[in-house]
UniProtKB/TrEMBL annotation:
<dbReference type="GO" id="GO:0005737">
    <property type="term" value="C:cytoplasm"/>
</dbReference>
<feature type="region of interest" description="Disordered">
    <location>
        <begin position="189"/>
        <end position="218"/>
    </location>
</feature>
<keyword id="KW-0833">Ubl conjugation pathway</keyword>
<feature type="zinc finger region" description="UBR-type">
    <location>
        <begin position="1"/>
        <end position="67"/>
    </location>
</feature>
<dbReference type="InterPro" id="IPR040204">
    <property type="entry name" value="UBR7"/>
</dbReference>
<keyword id="KW-1017">Isopeptide bond</keyword>
<keyword id="KW-0862">Zinc</keyword>
<dbReference type="GO" id="GO:0008270">
    <property type="term" value="F:zinc ion binding"/>
</dbReference>
<keyword id="KW-0808">Transferase</keyword>
<protein>
    <recommendedName>
        <fullName>Putative E3 ubiquitin-protein ligase UBR7</fullName>
        <ecNumber>2.3.2.27</ecNumber>
    </recommendedName>
</protein>
<keyword id="KW-0863">Zinc-finger</keyword>
<keyword id="KW-0832">Ubl conjugation</keyword>
<keyword id="KW-0597">Phosphoprotein</keyword>
<dbReference type="InterPro" id="IPR013083">
    <property type="entry name" value="Znf_RING/FYVE/PHD"/>
</dbReference>
<dbReference type="Pfam" id="PF02207">
    <property type="entry name" value="zf-UBR"/>
</dbReference>
<dbReference type="InterPro" id="IPR047506">
    <property type="entry name" value="UBR7-like_UBR-box"/>
</dbReference>
<dbReference type="InterPro" id="IPR011011">
    <property type="entry name" value="Znf_FYVE_PHD"/>
</dbReference>
Amino acid sequence: QGAVKRQALYACSTCTPPGGEPAGICLACSYECHGTHRLFELYTKRNFRCDCGNSKFKNLQCKLLPEKGKVNSGNKYNDNFYGLYCTCKRPYPDPEDEIPDEMIQCIVCEDWFHGRHLGAVPPESGDFHEMVCQACMNHCHFLWAYASQLAGKKIKISEQIFLPALTKVNSLEDEGIVLKVEESEEQKKEIKKESGVEHQETKEEKQTEQFNEPSTSSGSDFLNIYDYCSKFLQKCSVETAKTTSEYSFCKLKELQSKQFLKKDTATFWPLNWRSKLCTCEDCLKMYSELEVQFLTDECDTVLAYENKGTSDQETERRDPLMDTLNSMNRVQQVELICEYNDLKTELTDYLRRFADEGTVVKREDIQHFFEEFQSRKRRRTNRMQYYCS
């Protein structure tokens, strides 16, 4: 399948001992090709392709896919592939470490860290969803602007943040119907100029109407006011859209304009915090340069991976007979259940004879049973049916 978006990985210290090139193997190869070897569990890694049997393994050929590329250049490796974790570069579990401590995975570098080596006390279990370690916070410096708003806090579903600052519009005047809008001196001059031209045009239109056809003064005034307001509002909407596009589409710039603190610590983030990151063109380019494009992908999270596994297991456990029944009407359901019970009863009686006699059930015996069963079924369905008048 190539590089899998996220999968469980292992490192084999038997095939790739310390001092050699790091390599990772998938779950299937850990069973099929390295069943008796000493393995390190790496939990999950993103965008990784199994190395089993490639040039990093001198005396091993993959049993599942013998023909493989020599190297997987897209894979990323760290000390985890040698069974070492955290900034202390110790194994887990560590027989020399007597301090009970949990290990937390950084979602950027995907290394595992002791809670006491993060520079900050982790929140209580369940109060955060993901962690970014100290080194990755320095690498992804832009996250500090978000940290004051998101890190260590729970996001409410109804919470609206990063709202654009819109131009204020006051209420309408009683008769003049003039909108008071915050505007620059240049905009005022343009509006005065346009209003003067418009006023001159309306006077000419009035004179023309007086000569051509009779009309009420109230109707003419209404049309003039309506036309003026329409053009003025159109101009205001263009200016407002221009201001909004320049100001609000980059959430990061909005946050960076405010004061925020940078610390030499890890940060802890709540559920769905990734959806709050800016996805404007400049920010997407920055993510690409920092090689952290995955931060805007909600499906990249370990929780999404676990939920997918749970969903797949539920699908596998689902009874195909019940799925078929649910797609039928009641009459079809009753008929299928009766047929299933007949098959179950006759097959049980048929196999019991072999058990009583102590003989082996062969393929031919099963084929004979189903042929007889189908024959009896046809005889039943070919009988004459009687209907009440």
